[in-house]
């Protein structure tokens, strides 16, 4: 009765290549794979950045275990990983949809890969600086630079509190604006506003009519509108009454 074959895990380039290679060799020996079979299983186990290595190899090299593992060693080996991780840290910026927690986790991962031999205190200081440099929001970044944070964990906690305060402030402002544009709920106030609006419309209408008709003529004698003094009937009547009747022949 044959023994059940062991399965290999996948490799995406984000963990130690040396550790994965050791585990792969143990599984390959237990299953009795030859060199070509090992190459096929190794190629099939690659994911993400590690799988991109296959595009740089010829068909023959993909089936050659030494050539394939050598290419992975060159790309994900300890020496290369240090240099590559340091380059990633220097250019690491928070993505538009990335949370502060995700940024901190990735910075910590890259720091361990870039500075595996550094003392913990030194690595923590470097991680803190790279995290602050990578924060997308300029207000949060400025606050972190001014705050007395000692390590990545405390910086993350401070940044999350600051971000929550920002969101609460924006929400309050939005609520105030929404309340300002709502109709008044008090019927007395609503009635007063309606009356003021109606009065305003009447005044505007009166002004418009007055402008359309031109300036109104006023009589200096009687004070009436629509005629001048010389055409004033009241004045003419007064003058007629004031003049004595003349007899014919006198």
TrEMBL record:
<dbReference type="GO" id="GO:0003676">
    <property type="term" value="F:nucleic acid binding"/>
</dbReference>
<protein>
    <recommendedName>
        <fullName>CCHC-type domain-containing protein</fullName>
    </recommendedName>
</protein>
<dbReference type="GO" id="GO:0008270">
    <property type="term" value="F:zinc ion binding"/>
</dbReference>
<feature type="domain" description="CCHC-type">
    <location>
        <begin position="218"/>
        <end position="233"/>
    </location>
</feature>
<keyword id="KW-0479">Metal-binding</keyword>
<dbReference type="InterPro" id="IPR036875">
    <property type="entry name" value="Znf_CCHC_sf"/>
</dbReference>
<keyword id="KW-0862">Zinc</keyword>
<dbReference type="InterPro" id="IPR001878">
    <property type="entry name" value="Znf_CCHC"/>
</dbReference>
<keyword id="KW-0863">Zinc-finger</keyword>
């Amino acid at each position: 009765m044959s023994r059940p074959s062991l399965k290999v895990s996948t490799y995406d380039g984000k963990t130690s290549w040396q550790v994965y290679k050791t585990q792969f060799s143990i599984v390959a020996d237990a299953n009795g794979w030859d060199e070509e079979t090992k190459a096929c299983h190794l190629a099939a186990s690659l994911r993400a950045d590690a799988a991109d290595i296959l595009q740089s190899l010829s068909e023959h090299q993909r089936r050659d275990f030494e050539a394939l593992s050598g290419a992975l060693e060159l790309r994900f080996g300890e020496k290369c990983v240090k240099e590559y991780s340091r380059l990633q840290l220097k250019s690491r910026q928070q993505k538009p949809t990335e949370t502060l927690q995700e940024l901190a986790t990735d910075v910590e991962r890259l720091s361990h890969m870039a500075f595996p031999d550094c003392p913990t205190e030194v690595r923590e200081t470097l991680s803190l600086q790279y995290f602050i440099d990578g924060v997308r929001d300029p207000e949060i970044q400025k606050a972190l630079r001014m705050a007395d944070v000692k390590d990545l964990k405390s910086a993350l906690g401070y940044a999350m509190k600051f971000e929550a305060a920002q969101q609460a402030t924006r929400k309050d402002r939005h609520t105030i604006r929404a309340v300002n544009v709502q109709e008044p709920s008090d019927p007395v106030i609503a009635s007063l506003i309606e009356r003021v609006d109606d009065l305003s419309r009447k005044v505007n209408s009166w002004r418009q009519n007055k402008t359309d008709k031109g300036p109104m003529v006023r009589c200096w004698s009687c004070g009436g509108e629509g005629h001048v003094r010389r055409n004033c009937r009241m004045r003419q009547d007064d003058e007629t009454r004031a003049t004595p009747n003349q007899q014919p022949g006198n």
